[in-house]
Amino acid sequence: MHEGLRVVLLLLTAAVLMVALAKAVRLPSMLAYLAIGVAVGPHALGWLHESEQTGRLAEFGVVFLMFSIGLEFSLPRLVSMRWQVFGLGGAQVAVTTLATMAIAYFGGIPWQGGLALGAIYAMSSTAIVGRLLAEKLDLHSASGRRTMSVLLFQDLMVVFMLILIPALADTSHLVEVLGKALAQTLAVLLLVIVAGRPLIRRWFDIVVRRKSAELFMLNVLWVTIALAFLTDWAGLSLTLGAFLGGMLISETMYRHQVEADIRPFRDVLLGLFFITIGALLDLAIVWQRIEWVALVLIGLVAGKGLLMLIVTRLSGADTAVAFRTAAQLAQAGEFGFVLLTLASVNGLLAPEVVQPSLAGMLLSMLAAPFVIERSRAIGEKLSRDDWLRHSAALQEVAAHAFSIQDHAIVCGYGRTGQSVARFLYKEKIPFIALDMDAHRVQQALTAGENVVFGNAERREVLLAAGIERARIVVVTSPDVPSAVKILGIVRARRPDLPVIVRAADDAHLDELKRAGATEVVPEVMEGSLMLAAQTLTRLGVPLRRVLRDVEEARERRYELLRERYRDIGQRDDDAAPEKAADPMPPASGTQS
Q: For the whole prediction, is pTM greater than 0.90?
């Protein structure tokens, strides 16, 4: 018992140190856990021995990961993204799998192993890519949406492959095996959609009425484990049941609370799973077959990336978007390890194939942050070349801006840009909005709004938008590098032109000011001021005093707006004092 306690203490110590190091260099925690597994596994220091208990406990990490994936999966979301999810995602998985099967065939691997290996290599890392895109505010960019759609399809394919791979061990009835796997998946999903959704919604409504956080958490755990047990008992897999449980709860209003509650269990247990995966790596075999490791690494980064570039380009994306999408998917994924372990256990892949694959997959995930970051710079260069080739788009921008002057240029037409545009329209101030989302632009044009497809980071686009005649520029995206580029272009042409920049918080305020921003509006600060103003007003504090307190807090940051807010309490035409629910003008509110 003391030996077991010593191993647990060593693992926790290693986890604390390695995760802290990973955070310091801004790498995913998963890579730290994998490194720990390599170091303490039976093929290195030998602290962690293979056992059924350890494997079962680690498997629960994947159970909770699949539950979290299920929470993100819903029918409305699938319908809205159906073309990119099933079209682009299906093409990526199919092309990668077929290419891998062809290479594996010439390498002497049976087609069953080649199919399993193709599915393994087709997976990309939702954990790494999702986090990096969120940090760079690229989740809703053209490449970000395509990437997340492909990742969603890959997650869906995992459910099918978890059934198919064990079945491939016996190929005496191939058509029957494939049909059964597909039928099982569809039947269980149909059961969940038809019977599960109303049942789980009513059940959680009853639980929530008890007003007990403990009871709520117990029910979340019960649903997760019960459905995992049910599908395991039915001969499917633990992870499939967990996925279905998450999908059920995603259809209720409690999804976000459940996701927050389940995260600590998921992260800790998933960390143990990645430690056990790292422990599988036999460095001696890897060294003996180092050329195969290099081949797997090159295949995942260059080969898979090239295939995705072609597929995305054929789907209609421009070169820059296709390149960035390909780079964001050019690595192995955490579910690839799950499928690799499953294929190895079922005898589809020999250790001589598993070990180089495992090492190459690990290296591709280590390289992913650097590949994705580098793709940003290359994508920008390709964008510049694309603009030279797409002069028609530039002419369209100029045509929309030709008849207006003393106008506002709104850079970005998301929710924040649309909100700004509504106020400009109300005050009859002409404006032109630039956005890189073709679908959003088309919707806005259909609605009769003056919005055009264009990248505000390009000098020629801002010139076409009439920057020489403009009265103000508003940058609505909180992406700091993008805002700095726009500011550089504006200041080079119009040093006197006011530029209002949106920022997520105060962290980059000084940088944006130095770059030439007339005013920087930090969302966090404005949101906190609105929250404080509403709270004080509801507590009966006189409106004039609330506005004075808010003004004093704001004036340290907003020299330009100070005079505008000084007499706000006396301007009856803009704000009625008796309306306590709206004590501040729209211009100071948080835009999302």
A: no
